[in-house]
Amino acid sequence: MPSPLRIAVLASGRGSNFAALLAARDRGELIADFVLVASDKPHAGALQLAQTAGIPTLVLDPHDYAERRDYDFALFDRIAASKPDVLVLAGFMRIIDGDALKPWVGRMINIHPSLLPKYRGLHTHRRALKAGDSEHGASVHYVTAELDGGPVIAQTLLPVEAGDDENTLAARLLPLEHQLLSAVVALIAAGRLSLGADGIVFDGQPLRKPLRWRDRKLLR
C-alpha cells in the first residue's frame, strides 16, 4: 500500500470541496493525510472544518502585505513548511503570482466550475446560461501561471435544463464537483496520475484528452 498522500488545501469559502475530500478519506477511497488547511479569510468555513477534524490551519491576511506578490510568497513559504506532496485549491478565490507558484507546478491542482477552456475566471454559471449552452460542467486542472489555463485532468458534464438560473445550475453541479475532485486526488494518491514535461501521464500513458466522470468513475 502506498504511503498516504500529504495534502495541503487552500480555500476561501465554506469548504464544501474540502469536506468532500475528508469524506472520501474517511470512506477509505482516498489514502491521504491532510497536513494543512490555509485561507486568506479568517472566517472561512474550511478552517472550521479542519479544526474540528484536528487538522492544522493557517490564516494569512492579504491586507498585512503591501504587494500581492509579497503575500503570495509568504503564503507559499508557510505552506511549504508543512511538506505537502500536493496542494489542492478548493475554492481559493485569489489569483496567484506566477513566480510564487512556479515551484508547485505539477503538484498543485484546482477545481473550476466550467468545461475549460470555456469560461475561465468568475461567474461561470451566468456565462454558460447567457451563451445558451446545452451543457455545463466542472474541470480539475493542474495550476500554472495562466489563470485557469493549466492542463485539464478531468471533467464532469451536466445538461442545462429549461428554467435553470445561476443558483439552480450551481446547486446541481456542486455534488458532481465534489465527486470529480475526490476521484482525481485519489488517482494522484495512488500514483496513477502525474504531470511531466510532455503533459499529463495517466497509468503510464500520455493523457490526450481529459478524463470524464461517468457512472461514478473516471474514464478515458
Automatic annotation (TrEMBL):
Keywords per UniProt: Purine biosynthesis, Transferase
CDD domains, alphabetized: FMT_core_GART
SUPFAM superfamilies in alphabetical order: Formyltransferase (SSF53328)
Pfam families cross-referenced by the UniProt entry: Formyl_trans_N
List of residues binding N(1)-(5-phospho-beta-D-ribosyl)glycinamide: G15, S16, N17
Function per UniProt: Catalyzes the transfer of a formyl group from 10-formyltetrahydrofolate to 5-phospho-ribosyl-glycinamide (GAR), producing 5-phospho-ribosyl-N-formylglycinamide (FGAR) and tetrahydrofolate.
Family (UniProt): Belongs to the GART family.
Protein name per Swiss-Prot or TrEMBL: Phosphoribosylglycinamide formyltransferase
Organism: Dyella lipolytica
